[in-house]
Design brief:
Elements lengths: L6 E10 L5 E10 L6 E10 L5 E10 L5 E12 L6 E12 L5 E11 L4 E11 L2 E11 L5 E13 L5 E13 L2 E11 L5 E10 L4 E8 L4 E7 L12 H6 L2 H4 L22
Length: 274
């Protein structure tokens, strides 16, 4: 503790679990004498005998002005339980709020499979005064390199002085494989008086330069035709398993807990010595 009452402490430890699980962690935290300011940071790495390796960190705190924040991230190398496909996973979560009530939050993840499958996603929202917005998106790629699903969903709202509410948003979804696929979307809004507008659209790509385009809306719009046009989609992610692994040397170097070898074990240390 310092002369002005400000304090801090540092801790570390090792935790053990089943199947050779161990986790090494460090914690650093502190605060002001009156408790108005507090902060904490934790780092760890972990592994077990299945080959799982993990690194992560968490941070959180608050200040005298009422602002608060927390964030975490993890990076994990593991084998999927259903098909033993090796996977590199990266996930993060951030949140912050100001003393005046403004707030935002963000989550995202990336999962890279040795088989070639990739999944990416994000979920964000924020609030500034009477305005609130949301955004979500995702991308999924198959292991064959010729199929993908992508989507996004955005919406927002505004609280008016008379407690009426305005809302609006748009979303779309596309799925393609082997030169064929579909795109679909929607735009919508709700006015302060409750009046609603919606407009839907879609495309069916048949793989032979023909595309059916169709849609309708709540105002009476309607269309349905066949157009001759190219079909374009990108089924190859910009980042894959090998790059994810190459970019994570610290994760690859997380050690396994040494196995205890009994003197009468006829197999000795086995693969643990490799």
């Amino acid at each position: 503790m310092l002369a002005d009452g400000t304090w801090w402490e540092k801790k570390s430890g090792i935790e053990y679990g089943k199947n050779g699980y161990w986790k090494r962690w460090q914690l650093l935290r502190g605060g002001s004498a009156d408790g108005a300011v507090e902060w904490e940071e934790t780092w760890w790495d972990a592994s077990d005998y299945t080959g799982m390796k993990e690194m992560g960190a968490q941070k959180q705190g608050r200040n005298a002005g009422g602002d608060a924040w927390r964030e975490s991230w993890t990076e994990r190398l593991m084998y999927a339980s259903n098909d033993l496909d090796c996977v590199v996973e990266r996930n993060a979560h951030k949140w912050a709020a100001q003393g005046d009530g403004d707030e935002w939050e963000e989550k995202w993840g990336e999962h890279y499979h040795a088989s070639g499958k990739v999944a990416k996603f994000a979920d964000k929202w924020g609030k500034t005064g009477p305005n609130v917005w949301h955004e979500r998106w995702g991308e999924d790629y198959d292991s064959g390199g010729d199929a993908c699903v992508k989507w996004t969903d955005k919406w927002a709202e505004r609280l008016l002085p008379d407690n009426a509410r305005e809302q609006w948003g748009d979303k779309w979804h596309e799925a393609f494989a082997n030169g064929r696929g579909e795109k679909n979307g929607e735009v919508w809004s709700v006015g302060a008086g409750g009046d609603r507008y919606q407009r839907w659209w879609g495309e069916q790509h048949m793989g032979d330069m023909r595309v059916r385009r169709h849609g309708h809306s709540t105002t009476g719009e309607q269309w349905d035709d066949i157009a001759h046009m190219d079909t374009y989609y990108n089924p190859v992610p910009h980042f894959g398993f090998k790059l994810a692994l190459d970019h994570s040397p610290q994760l690859r170097n997380v050690p396994l807990k040494p196995k205890e070898i009994k003197p009468d074990d006829p197999f000795g240390p086995g693969l643990d010595q490799l």
